[in-house]
From TrEMBL:
GO MF terms held by the record: cobyrinic acid a,c-diamide synthase activity
Database matches in Pfam families: GATase_3 (PF07685)
The keyword Transferase belongs to this UniProt entry's keyword annotation: no
Residue stretches of biased makeup (Low complexity): 141-152
SUPFAM superfamilies per UniProt: Class I glutamine amidotransferase-like, P-loop containing nucleoside triphosphate hydrolases
Keyword DNA-binding annotated: no
Residues covered by region (Disordered): 141-162
Protein name as it appears in the record: Hydrogenobyrinate a,c-diamide synthase
Record InterPro entries: CbiA/CobB_synth, Class_I_gatase-like, GATase_3, P-loop_NTPase
């Protein structure tokens, strides 16, 4: 089993993604078989880690995944790796209200050690909440005070800038980071592959001259997981599944596509932004989430794509959309400037980004009726994260009955009409 470390921090915005990508690219350049994982639900950071490592990044979510699914993901992650680097989600304890799904929860369950990434001026973490079995192996220190110190390779003893609390737990400072280094990620929603490469390369160069990388690698521990079992986190929607994959529909887990292939399904990608219609022989079409609001005009003008969706319903294909894909299945999408763009019109739904409203959190979702995702009552774990509002919807059959992570009811979610269905929830695994 490959050894791993997890990069953790007190909160979001600490620079974990840049450090993780820099480490991955550095070790890859040095010839190591390095792989990456991201704690919790995330579609954006794994793209950076894929760029840096040259391999798909795996999401590990102890709240959203069954133990057998988590074990299967770990087995794939470690199959041909000698070092695995994971990026924590947001802050160390951010997850469900009971602590499940957090970076701390994942580290405790997987036996991994934390590399603590501390930003000067950040609010001190609640150290008393740390499990007794947890370990902080190293501390890297990001200084906001001055760029004159630059990044520097840390000594084997703690540098004076490192927090005393970290020193008292026996960790060692491996690097000090200056504020003015060039490795700064671009705005995530608009960061395409061409934008990612320069800062990933910059981050690798900074890591090479600043971080005691071999000392960190030596501290990694073997990942632990229970017995893996074959199966798919979400059952295949059909035998031949057309999957939208481009800049507007990028929120799709590669591991799920592999699950479907292993279950015997054929996955056929297509690009709505290139005005490609879904495969005419597909018996299912999957529209994942992404950023349709940034490309609404192009989607509205993609007549072959929209006609292809309507044609698919005509020959009885299953159509399923998540979040952004759900919006595209609706009648119209209003962008941030107030312009309405016509969508597929397959669900009686109108959405708007003109007055943004955040919806965020884990979701427990139970099917309200029989359908392609299973029998009525089949339960899933998922995640919701979007800024749009539903501004108009006609009466339709709900897809899910939902609760939050604590079990508090949230009411009906999503919509289904014939073989077309969708919701704002990104499904992770069966419950």
């Amino acid at each position: 089993m490959a050894s791993a470390i997890i990069l953790a921090a007190p909160a979001s915005g600490s620079g974990k993604t840049v450090l993780c990508a820099g480490l991955l690219a550095h070790f890859r350049k040095g010839g190591r078989a390095v792989r990456a994982f991201k704690a919790g639900p995330d579609y954006i950071d794994p793209g950076y880690h894929r760029m840096a490592s040259g391999h798909d990044c795996v999401n590990l979510d102890p709240w959203g995944m069954r133990p057998e699914t988590l074990a299967r993901r770990v087995a794939v992650l470690c199959a041909d790796a000698d070092l695995v680097i994971g990026e924590g989600a947001m802050g160390l304890f951010d997850g469900a209200r009971d602590g499940t799904g957090s970076t701390a929860d994942l580290a405790a369950g997987s036996g991994s050690l934390w590399c603590w990434w501390w930003t000067r001026g950040a609010r001190a973490p609640r150290w008393r909440r740390l499990p007794k079995a947890s370990s902080i192996t190293a501390t890297t220190w990001r200084s906001r005070a001055s760029s004159s110190t630059g990044w520097r390779r840390g000594a084997r003893t703690a540098a004076p800038q490192c927090p005393r609390r970290a020193i008292h737990r026996g960790s060692r400072c491996r690097a000090t980071v200056g504020r003015a280094e060039p490795a700064v990620a671009p705005s995530r929603p608009r960061a395409g592959l061409r934008e990612r490469r320069p800062w990933v390369e910059d981050a690798a160069a900074v890591v090479a001259r600043s971080v005691d990388t071999e000392a960190l690698a030596a501290l990694a521990r073997p990942l632990q997981a229970g017995p893996a079992a074959p199966g798919a986190a979400i059952p295949p929607l059909g035998q031949r599944i057309a999957v939208a994959r481009d800049e507007a529909f990028g929120f799709c887990y590669d591991a799920l596509m592999e699950d479907w292939r292993n279950a015997g399904a054929t996955v056929v990608p297509f690009s709505p932004l290139a005005d490609e219609a879904p495969d005419a022989e597909a018996d299912a079409v999957y529209l994942p989430g992404g950023y349709p609001e940034l490309h609404a005009g192009r989607i509205a003008g993609a007549q072959r794509f929209l006609a292809g969706l309507r044609a698919a319903t005509g020959h009885g294909a299953v159509l399923f959309g998540e979040c952004g894909g759900y919006m595209v299945l609706g009648r119209g999408l209003i962008d941030a400037d107030g312009h309405r763009h016509g969508m597929a019109g397959l669900l009686p739904l109108e959405t708007s980004f003109q007055e943004r409203r955040l919806a965020l959190g884990y979701r427990q979702a139970r099917l309200a009726a029989d359908g392609p995702l299973g029998k009525a009552g089949t339960a899933y774990c998922g995640h919701e994260f979007h800024y749009c509002r539903v501004v108009a919807e006609d009466a339709g059959r709900p897809l899910f009955e939902t609760c939050d992570a604590t079990g508090a009811p949230l009411g009906d979610a999503g919509m289904t009409a014939g073989m077309v269905s969708g919701s704002f929830i990104h499904l992770i695994d069966r419950a």
